[in-house]
Amino acid sequence: MSEDPIGQAGEFPYTRGVYKEMYRKRAWTMRQYAGFGSAEESNKRYQYLLSQGTTGLSVAFDLPTQMGMDADHPLAAGEVGRTGVSICSLRDMETLFDGIPLEKITTSMTINSTASILLCLYALVAKQQGAGVRKLSGTIQNDILKEYIARGTYIYPPRQAMRIITDLFAWAGREMPEWNTISISGYHIREAGSTAAQEIAFTLANAIAYIEAALVAGLAIDSFAPRLSFFFNAHNNFLEEIAKFRAARRLYAHIMRDRFAARDPRSMMLRFHTQTAGSTLTAQQPDVNIVRVTLQALAAVMGGTQSLHTNSKDEALALPTEESARLALRTQQIIAHESGITQAVDPFGGSECIEQLTDKLEAEARQYIERIDGMGGALAAIERGYIQTEIQNAAYDYQRAVESGEAVVVGVNRFQQDQQTAPPRFRIDPAIEPAQIARLRDVRASRDNTATTASLDRLEAAARGTENLLPHIMECCSALATVGEISNRLRNVFGEYSEA
Fold first, then answer.
1. Is 224 among the domain residues?
2. Which of 166, 149, 148 is closest to 157 using CA atoms?
């Protein structure tokens, strides 16, 4: 008897959802991605969002923090606190989570090249609060491959970066067993212009690369696979997006069971966070973005997401105001508490249209994965530029469709409005950057620099060998070494990556 490709929710191949009851017992985690300026200002926004009903935190870091640069690095000028919060040392992390009990909240951190450093800082703050680190729950993005593909906030060459990731897998498996050690991201791949099928394929191809690297490092598949998680985009094509999530779950379940011989059912469950599509938001008629975000959020929920961020209407113009962030959160709350759709598991399952779309997307994604396998895997495909080129071609085709009018974008190429009133915009105080630099220099002046330097020396020596780097990074963070100093010691050993 052949295997049912649809099955039941909570059962292999998880087409209908990873949990039997889905949202009938508990809604998805409602996260609102936030972070800007100083740790103190970001903390105020987190406290506000929690007071308004968010059920999980999601932290955005500024570009210098993502790139392993301290606030006073010459290349950080003008970028401190702009796209997220500036974190230079343990002192900033303490301020960021001041008054927020980390043992009682789940936190997602969107950080990749410096993920190991930020996770150590988070664990140290939790220890200071008296929390049991083994009980901490949350997710670190830690997905470096998509940075080479679609986003660009990499530091080290790919193969050296993979070592840090597998070291984090092993360390967190022992020290933070409830923590999701990676969030393998299709979101940024889609934001760069990929199709829905490409988003599935390139995300799962990256997942395969991480799993293979962990196996080579000596980890058993079921020792780390249950803590792998994913991050997908919710785009505009409502039915296609629902089918995309279902196809990704089914394809991943088969990859884990049939290719990697996983036996723990948790290893076969594709659990994912969703964010609505920032690339679809328009500066023209920004109120219309509320409708786009609502449809995208509905698709994510209908597709079975485990957590969700809804973008704010003004994000094509600036960081969201408190008012627009609250409205974005209320969108999720209305879906959860007023729409009634949470009472049905996989509401569109069995629909001829949805099942055909699910089959089609799975088949297209599988073909891409087979092609990437033939090149030697995702790492080799990235080094050849294959994945980047495929995304660029898809983005070009879509832009041509918009410019020709074949693809309609309301308010942009159809249904324009001549006179528009600009909404209030959130602005970063320019005084934040010099203040952050002053705090950083105070940390350097007040710490035990002999102990800090010794911890950094031990980290660099470990990087030249084969030891797990995470205990050494933890020691450096505890000694008040900065994100930039730790990253620089690893640069000394691994070098920096630049595209050919």
1. yes
2. 148
Residue 49, token pair as written in the block: 């969002």
Tell me how far apart the alpha carbons of residues 286 and 301 are, in angstroms, rounded to a whole number: 23
- Tell me the CATH number at 181: 3.20.20.240
Q: Which domain holds residue 169?
A: 22-404
The answer to whether residues 86 and 62 touch, using CB atoms and an 8 Å cutoff, is: yes
CA dihedral 283, 287, 288, 293 (to 10 degrees): 100
Buried b / exposed e along 93-126 (16+ C-beta atoms within 10 A) = bebbbeebebeebbbbbbbbbbbbbbbbbbbbbb
pLDDT of residue 1: 42
Q: Using CA atoms, how far apart are residues 455 and 290, in angstroms rounded to an integer?
A: 49
pLDDT in tens, 360-380: 999 999 999 999 999 999 999
Number of domains in the chain: 1
Work out the mean pLDDT of the chain and round it to a whole number: 96
* Identity of residue 10: G
Is 306 in a helix, a strand, or coil? coil
Name the token pair of 100.
């927020």
* 135 domain-assigned: yes
Model-level pTM? 0.94
Cβ pair 120, 101 in contact under 8 A: no
Tell me how far the alpha carbon of residue 17 is from its chain's centroid.
Answer: 20
Q: Confirm whether 497 is domain-assigned.
A: no
Give a yes or no: residue 442 inside a domain.
no
